[in-house]
Request: fold
Amino acid sequence: MRSSQFDILKRHHDGSFIWLEAAGDLAVAQTRLRELSGHTPGHYFVFDQKSQQIVAKLSNLPGGE
Reply:
């Protein structure tokens, strides 16, 4: 069984993060960021479990919040 290295998160209005799903590779995770933000505006992130770093982000809130 292959484990997923990347977590897809959304920043909640109070600053906390909400885990949405996992992805096996970065390209899939970035595609999902675009799809998710197309449905619901917000701040989205891809977190790499291996490096413990945010490796991609997307924000599409009106007014640049």
Observations:
- DSSP finds one helix and four strands in the chain.
- Helices lie at 26-39.
- The chain has a mean pLDDT of 91.
